[in-house]
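Subject: Sanity check before I submit

Could someone independently write out the structure tokens for this chain? I want to compare against mine line by line before I put it in a report. The sequence has 152 residues.
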Amino acid sequence: MRALRQVIRPHFTSALLAGVVITVSASPASAATCSVSTAGVAYGSYDTLASTPLDGVGAINVSCDASTSFAVALSSGNGSFAQRLMTAGTSQLGYNLYTDATRTIVWGDGISGSTVSATGTAVDLSIYGRIPAQQNVTAGVYSDTITITVSY
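---
Independent answer below. Compare away.
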């Protein structure tokens, strides 16, 4: 079994805007060769007084040179699978990542939270993010590091 690991770093600017920075690493094994790329979860501006959560969507793209079955897992980052945390100094902003558009299934590592399985040569998977409403945080650059593991 081969596993690719990729790190995403959701972050917020002083206006609390989200973006993602990515790095990739791979480990050996199967007959197929795959690569992973991502598009950051775009949240927009976070309003601490808003009564509704702030949602965003990103993407994980898995490309293989032969049709392959694989599973995609995400790490918990700074927090837990119950609530991931972005930090700015000592301030923390809770959020989570989900496998579904209704944001009910937490994307995890298969032990805590669900993984996503797929088969193909080029598969695009959506990452659904949510920042719960009315968190009392200061303006700043909030970030977390999430590792994506693709096992095939």
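---
OP: Matches mine. For the report I'm noting this point. The chain has one domain: 3-151.
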